[in-house]
């Protein structure tokens, strides 16, 4: 249980940095570049994911990072970011709601996806 708590707390700290990166890029792309929320959310996710993927591989899950794992992570979570942004565009939801809801969804789904799919084969 102690190892799981350490894993979650490290995941959360990296997640805060990831969220800051994501939100800043999202707003630059939606406001300054006038991109759709779907494109902005996906692009911001990809940049933030690059940072967090390697930090998680090194510190949170203590597993080596690979290109295949990175692409699997970006495909799954990036797809989710695009879908959330797409529905925000369709329903004309404010950008703050878009990144806030995706951040919450990303915290929950990203932890389980990372723990059980990406890094699940590591030794105990």
From TrEMBL:
Residues 11-117 form the GtrA/DPMS transmembrane domain. Pfam families: GtrA_DPMS_TM (PF04138). The chain crosses the membrane at residues 12-33, 39-58, 70-88, 94-118. Keywords: Membrane, Transmembrane, Transmembrane helix, Transport. The keyword Metal-binding does not apply. It is found in: Membrane. It is a multi-pass membrane protein. Signal peptide: none annotated. Belongs to the gtrA family. Involved in O antigen modification. Involved in the translocation of bactoprenol-linked glucose across the cytoplasmic membrane. This is Bactoprenol-linked glucose translocase. It comes from Pseudomonas mandelii.
């Amino acid at each position: 249980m102690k190892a799981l708590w350490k894993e979650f707390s490290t995941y959360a700290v990296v997640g805060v940095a990831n969220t800051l990166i994501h939100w800043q890029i999202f707003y630059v792309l939606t406001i300054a570049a006038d991109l759709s929320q779907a494109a902005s959310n996906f692009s911001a996710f990809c940049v933030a994911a690059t940072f967090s993927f390697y930090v998680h591989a090194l510190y949170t899950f203590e597993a080596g990072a690979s290109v295949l794992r990175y692409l699997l992570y970006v495909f799954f979570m990036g797809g989710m970011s695009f879908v959330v942004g797409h529905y925000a565009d369709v329903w004309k939801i404010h950008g703050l709601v878009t990144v806030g809801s995706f951040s919450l969804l990303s915290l929950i789904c990203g932890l389980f996806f990372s723990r059980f799919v990406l890094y699940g084969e590591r030794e105990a």
